Target: Aquaporin-8
Amino acid sequence: MCEPKFGDGKELRVTDQNPASWYERLVQPCLVELLGSALFIFIGCLSVIENGMDTGRLQPALAHGLALGLIIATLGNISGGHFNPAVSLAAMLTGGLNLVMLLPYWVSQMLGGLIGAALVKVVSPEERFWNATGAAFVTVQEQGQVAGALGTEIILTTLLALAVCMGAINEKTQGPLAPFSIGFSVTVDILAGGAVSGGCMNPARAFGPAVMANYWSFHWIYWLGPLLGGLLVGLLIRFAIGDGKTRLVLKDW
Model:
């Protein structure tokens, strides 16, 4: 029997011994990515809005990290538990996601981001919502901060994507604690880089609140930075630190 395992890409494969329906192979993973993205972004954005200035970055960091770890542990065996276009890009490059599913995953994640952010707007007091700009990323206020924010997003996303690809996809290093490691990486990233870039690492997390609050200043940073980080991890694993089945060079024959 071919048993699906978190993040190894088998959720999108079929064997003669265990044929999967088109729904389980194509539709269900996208629905899970939509649901998980909506839940993650709802919790993350709500924590930012309700946090105000009370505890600085600690509350949003814990809320984002714990929520992501819990959602991945719950839903990861169905879709791989990405909930992030940058992570899906890295997973595709390292063999954890079929290329034909990359665009459907991205669409599902962006729709999930919109739903999560819209729900936050519905349940939040109007004053708090607008005081926090709907949890959109407002850290970068001037051109002089762009380079630092972009570089920070690339590095923070690199850590997150490494946690996913090495902990859940790469056979030599994958393990059962991957969901928690991934969640911890988000918490650490926000605590470390929140003051520089906001600690986004996820275009879907940036997109939903930006639409709800109609706030687009320097929004491109939160697409380019995470996607470059995901690309960097894909190349790093394929050419240097991946296992023998994943590396494109110096393979074990």
User: Anything to note?
Assistant: The chain has one domain: 10-241.
